[in-house]
């Protein structure tokens, strides 16, 4: 049987499957709450590092996005994946009401003329690490230590997200 992942379409792309996925994660968290300390601490670590990345991103966005002739979100084929959803649950963040895309022909439901309506912390990780060519060029104009800090933080979040997922799976398996 083919899953959504095999077909490269967004997982949990209907309201029903989205709610079911979130119910299942909440249930697993509640059932194993006494063992969740490390997974929750890792989610907190991800959050702290993301907050530092956002300071750099806000700066980049301010200098590029308001004049963009072709906003990337209009053609982005991205979605909330398992690590994203896990991070939201472990960090007790507000869960978006639905997956970004019901299918690959649609535009992200959280895009607006003023930009993304989701708080940065609840957007999928891909929406944070992706820098369009204009932003990459802008980042290259910044001080070396800012560029290095950005790369270090991106790498640190990747590692931490993987550890968080592994710890969660270890607990619930
Ligand atoms: S990130 Fe780049 S492509 Fe996307 S809206 Fe901003 S300037 Fe445009
Ligand atoms: S969640 Fe926000 S940043 Fe990500 S694709 Fe959708 S509108 Fe763009």
Folded structure, characterized:
- The protein is mainly alpha-helical.
- It has one domain (4-172).
- It is built from 7 helices and 2 strands.
- The protein has helices spanning 4-7, 15-31, 37-64, 82-90, 125-129, 133-140, 144-172, and strands at residues 111-112, 115-116.
- The radius of gyration is 17 Å and the shape is flat.
- The model is unreliable at 1-6 (pLDDT under 50).
- Bound molecules: iron/sulfur cluster (2 copies).
- One iron/sulfur cluster (SF4) is lined by residues 73, 76, 78, 100, 108, 110-111, 116, 118, 123, 127.
- One iron/sulfur cluster (SF4) binds at residues 64-65, 68, 71-72, 132, 134-135.
SSE order: HHHHEEHHH
Distance between the termini: 23 Å
The helix content is: 55-70%
Bound molecules: iron/sulfur cluster
Work out the number of β strands.
2
Mean pLDDT, rounded to whole units?
A: 95
* Shape summary: flat
From the alpha carbons, calculate the radius of gyration and give it in angstroms: 17 Å
* Strand residues, percent: under 5%
- Helices, by number, come to 7
Widest β-sheet, arrangement of strands: 1-2
Query: How many discrete domains?
Result: 1
Class from helix and strand fractions:
mainly alpha
Largest sheet geometry: 2 strands, antiparallel
List low-pLDDT spans. 1-6
